[in-house]
Amino acid sequence: MITSTSYKRNITDDIVTCISRYHLDIGFRSNRSLIRFSEANKIVVITANENINFLKKNFPNENYLIFLNEDEIIPNIKLIDVASMLAELGGNSERAGWYYQQFLKMNFFNKSNKSIII
User: Fold this and answer.
1) Full-prediction pTM beyond 0.90?
2) Alpha-carbon distance 78 to 64, whole Å?
3) What percent of the chain is modeled with pLDDT above 90?
4) Phi/psi zone of residue 26: left (φ > 0), alpha (ψ -120 to 50 degrees), beta?
5) 75-78: long-range contacts at Cβ-Cβ below 8 A with a sequence spacing of 24 or more?
6) Which of 2, 28, 82, 89 could form an SS bridge with 96, CB 3.0 to 4.6 Å?
7) Do residues 63 and 35 lie in contact, with contact meaning Cβ atoms separated by under 8 Å?
8) Integer angstrom CA distances of residue 29 from 12, 34, 36, 77, 91
9) What's the CA gap between 100 and 20, in Å, rounded?
C-alpha cells in the first residue's frame, strides 16, 4: 500500500497520465512519485480496463486518484487504428502507443473544464 506524504492538495490543476498495458510496472512507480511529489487536485490515470483493478488495489486510500478506461475516452479509436493509420501513411507503427496516449490525453483535456497538466 502506498501512502501519500502530501497531506493538503491545494493546487487546482489536475494531472492526466496514461499507463500502457505493457508498462504497468513503470506506471505504478510514476503514480507513486506523482502522489508523493505533486500537489495536484486530482491525478487522472487513463489505462486499459484490465489494469484498473490492480491499480485500485495498490492505491486504496488515494481518493484523488481517478482511473479511467482508455476505451471510453475515445470510443471510436483504438490503438490498432492508430497503428494502421501510421503504417498507411508510411510512419512507424511501433510508435502507435505513444501517439495513442497523446490522443487520449488531448481528448480528455477537450472534455474537461479544468486546468490540466498532461
Assistant:
1) no
2) 27
3) 55
4) alpha
5) 77/103
6) 82
7) no
8) 23, 9, 11, 28, 31
9) 10
